[in-house]
Amino acid sequence: MLAVGVLAGLSVLSLLTYGYLSWDSLGLGPGEAQAAGTGLGEEPGAGAPSSQPHIVFILADDQGFRDVGYHGSEIRTPTLDKLAAEGVKLENYYVQPMCTPSRSQFITGKYQIHTGLQHSIIRPTQPNCLPLDNVTLPQKLKEVGYSTHMVGKWHLGFYRRECMPTQRGFDTFFGSLLGSGDYYTHFKCDSPGICGYDLYENDNAAWDHDNGIYSTQMYTQKVQQILASHNPRKPIFLYIAYQAVHSPLQAPGKYFEHYRSINNINRRRYAAMLACLDEAINNVTLALKKYGYYDNSIIIYSSDNGGQPMAGGSNWPLRGSKGTYWEGGIRAVGFVHSPLLKNKGSVCKELVHITDWFPTLITLAEGQIDEDIQLDGYDIWETISEGRRSPRVDILHNIDPIYTKAKNGSWAAGYGIWNTAIQSAIRVNHWKLLTGNPGYSDWVPPQAFSNVGPNRWHNERVSWSAGKTVWLFNITADPYERVDLSARYPDVVKQLLRRLSQFNKTAVPVRYPPKDPRSNPKLNGGVWGPWFKEDEKKKKTDKGKGANKQKKNKNKKKAN
User: Fold this and answer.
1) What distance in Å separates the CA atoms of residue 79 and residue 252, rounded to the nearest whole number?
2) How many Cβ atoms sit within 10 Å of the Cβ of residue 466?
3) What is the number of other CB atoms lying within 10 angstroms of the CB of residue 14?
4) Where are the beta strands (DSSP E) in 177-315?
5) Contact (CB, 8 A) for 351 and 92
6) Which of 70, 168, 384, 418 could bridge 414 with an S-S bond, Cβ 3.0-4.6 Å?
7) What whole-number distance in Å separates Cα of residue 431 and Cα of residue 472?
8) What are the angstrom distances between the C-alpha of 44 and each of 220, 229, 236, 287?
9) pTM, whole model, 2 decimals?
10) Phi, psi dihedrals of residue 463, rounded to the nearest 5°
11) Do the beta carbons of residue 135 and residue 358 sit within 8 Å?
12) Strands (E), 296-450
């Protein structure tokens, strides 16, 4: 236990911070900070001011835990550092290990097991989307008078028109439907020959906006236009889901200037992409101030999952990476910046999960949460703003009944309580339990990025005894998951397995259909978009019924 105590002490050293720049050094004068400019549409001064706050939720894509200045990164992020330092840093904040799961849990306040999206992500060719019977955050905000706008990456399915962002509560949408694509051309190939264009404005392909502009900058320009044309006296919800820093690794040339010394090409490109993203968030913040929103705004920043070391991301000193249930896949960079915070300049170490934003933001917006909505999130505003204890004591990271790659998993290994072949992970207070195959488990230190190509020589690995399918960690004392305690505390293992079993009883069936050939963009004007039409299905059903009637009549005549 001495080793665990030493590790807990080292965890403090891993969070050394860099200095912060002033707004003046970022190009904002004192007058501009307070000035409210006249918009392109309604006059900002029209109408009585709203007590409801403006909500800006910024979601970065694949940003590693270490990849922010205040976590000790060599990549400069002056905007993120300053916003976080003046707000509340979330240092016990969890998301999901991949794109679709994090986005679905943010927008519904529900765990994956309660939406059917507990396996992998939604693929472009799958007839799948966030189930239509789930109420979304923008829908609830619209009920209480918010104007709702989404800019960026959707990745919650689009096979039917009803699945599109504008049908799920957003007044406007500008961005991509898929999980990734070229930052300049906005084309995406899912497999050889299955390629298409993926940039939308509302429900139509945005060919008019295809001017070869880098997506991070293009999305920021769109946000600036929305803020300029909206009345700041009326509440607005802006969901900005940047494509960066997800692969492909692309960035405008000028952002490489400070990172020529990084030999690893993937890390260098990643650094340039993050530098551009940091500048974009600065520009969004300046627009909030310029057009009169800032003083009554709440800015939330979050990554959707951990970084991918092979694509330049770093989660050091955490273990694992994107796509895994080790801390490096699910513990995220996150903070809240707002003039409305009571404890500005503080650090929140209470347990917070991405599902918590749904009830928290609806409550802040003076909305109502229906009693029949079974949420997994908690209202954690007082935890963040006032430093109170979190109402959350556990997190179901996931149960994936399809992912059973742990060949040695068994009911016996799970004490007859749980089949440890199933990939699952749960956190209860200080304890974290993993079963099945949690995924790539190396620790990837900064030295791993020191060479020209990917180098795993520096990676630290643990060779587990053959057949291991259960791990237990005290995350508070051992945030880097170096000391497995499953053999030492079998009673704790059993308690957490029982909790997993209880959660599993509430799970809905997994939605993971096979690909549909009708999804090919060649059949849809070269564009990724809705292909499933209810009318066609109805016609086929009607034709089938008609054919059956004709057969019955023929059979009757023959019988006669």
Assistant:
1) 19
2) 6
3) 15
4) 187-191, 194-197, 200-201, 204-205, 236-241, 297-303
5) yes
6) 418
7) 7
8) 20, 9, 13, 13
9) 0.87
10) -95, 105
11) no
12) 297-303, 334-337, 346-348, 352-353, 394-400, 423-428, 431-435
Residue 49 DSSP symbol = P
In the set 54, 71, 99, 246, the catalytic residue is 99
Domain(s) of CATH 3.40.720.10: residues in the chain = 54-392
**Rounded Cα gap, residues 179 and 263, in angstroms:** 28
> Can you read off the two tokens belonging to residue 225?
């236009």
The residue annotated as part of the active site, out of 71, 114, 155, 397, is: 155
Q: Does the N-terminal peptide bond of residue 490 adopt cis geometry, omega within 30 degrees of 0? A: no
Using CA atoms in the order 282, 233, 300, 215, what is the torsion angle rounded to 10 degrees? -50
> What is the tens place of the pLDDT at every residue in 184-218?
999 999 999 999 999 999 999 999 887 889 999 99
Q: Which helix (H) or strand (E) holds 55?
A: strand 54-60
Q: Which CATH class is domain 399-450+457-506?
A: alpha beta
Q: Which of 104-108, 204-208, 342-346 has the lowest mean pLDDT?
A: 204-208
User: Is 99 annotated in the active site?
Assistant: yes
Instruction: Express each pLDDT in 253-296 by its tens digit.
Output: 999 999 999 999 999 999 999 999 999 999 999 999 999 999 99
CA 89, CA 81: separation in Å to the nearest integer? 10
Please report the DSSP string for 102-171 in residue order: HHHHHHHS--GGGTT--SS---TTSS-BS-TTS--HHHHHHHTT-EEEEEEE--SB-SSGGGSGGGTT-S
- Report residue 516 as tokens: 């549909």
SS3 of 51, please? coil
How many other β-carbons are positioned within 10 Å of the β-carbon of residue 519?
Answer: 23
| CA distance readout (Å), 495 to 376, 470, 498, 499 | 20, 13, 5, 6
Boundaries of CATH 3.30.1120.10 in the chain? Answer: 399-450+457-506
Question: Residue 308 in contact with residue 62, Cβ under 8 Å?
Answer: yes
What gap in Å lies between CA 129 and CA 151, rounded to an integer?
A: 19
CATH 3.30.70.2740 fits 54-392, yes or no: no
Q: Give the residue carrying structure tokens 């059993």.
A: 494
In whole angstroms, what is the distance from residue 90 CA to residue 83 CA? 12
Residues listed for the chain: 560
Residue type (1 letter), 522: K
Q: CA 327, CA 444: separation in Å to the nearest integer? A: 13
CA-to-CA distance for 133 and 110, rounded, in angstroms?
13
Structure-token pair, residue 237: 């919800």
